[in-house]
Amino acid sequence: MENHTKEELQDPTMQVSSLNCIDLANDDLHHSACLDCGFFYVINHGITEEFMDDVFEQSKKFFALPLEEKMKVLRNEKHRGYTPVLDEILDPENQVNGDHKEGYYIGIEVPKDDPNYDKPFYGPNPWPDSDVLPQWRETMEKYHQEALRVSKDIGRLLALALDLDANYFDTPEMLGKPIATMRLLHYEGVSDPSKGIYACGAHTDYGMMTLLATDGVMGLQICKDKNAKPQKWEYVPAIKGAYIVNLGDMLERWSNGFFKSTLHRVLGNGQERYSIPFFVEPNHECLVECLPTCKSESNVPKYPAIKCSAYLTQRYKETHAELSIYNQEI
């Protein structure tokens, strides 16, 4: 645990969550380690702390730019690029306005002459001017490749936990040609839940899984039982060198509820906070329907089949502002 403020550690009401940890260097893995809830740690993933420090440093450089400069790479209809503060609202029932965070989406680079270019979550990334941020693009593209590699390693463990072949998800229809999107995030440190103001509103992630790297500043909270009344929120501490992995709604559907997506949010504590979630989804055309090992006569499929791109498009539309509101500002 690191970077807690003195006040936090003295606060008896601050519940800190205990999560399972998966060691990717250990062959004797307990494949059900993530069943306690949809969040767990992953260590020995092969990405060095030095490189992660560089990625975070480059992220901070972008967010330190003037707003005018950042708006030059405003997110497009493919959900690539800059998202201003309040652009996203994840918990409209409890939030008075959008999240108090800004972000930057980066996906797999797909050139215009690629046959997949017209698909909604593929396309070229807008990049900041290399004269303004030299080496920025190279750093982010390298990190994207590394995070995708780790995601596929975790995907093999998830397959084994579901009594599937280890490479079940690593096919062109699934993670062989995935929708994989990293998002740089900068939180202002603003929150007042009593007034409906959140750094990031309560939500479950849409997709298959999310790899989360943070700068260690406390803020992330999870609710292990999303149906409980009242909800019990626990802080998730960072572990140096470890990913926090979060299983999403799509995997809950796929596994017929065997894996659970977990409600989470971010509260600001007056400190700036930086994080980098890496969202992993299968191919656009992948039909997400109950896996063969997750159903039986007594355990029938709970969710209808749905195409991956249709599901994601709907979820993004529900949570992001219409791009037209920015037209007058550009």
Automatic annotation (TrEMBL):
The keyword Iron applies. Residues 178-282 form the Fe2OG dioxygenase domain. Gene3D superfamilies: B-lactam Antibiotic, Isopenicillin N Synthase, Chain. SUPFAM superfamilies: Clavaminate synthase-like. PROSITE patterns: FE2OG_OXY (PS51471). Pfam families: 2OG-FeII_Oxy (PF03171), DIOX_N (PF14226). The keyword Transferase does not apply. Keywords: Iron, Metal-binding, Oxidoreductase. Belongs to the iron/ascorbate-dependent oxidoreductase family. This is Fe2OG dioxygenase domain-containing protein.
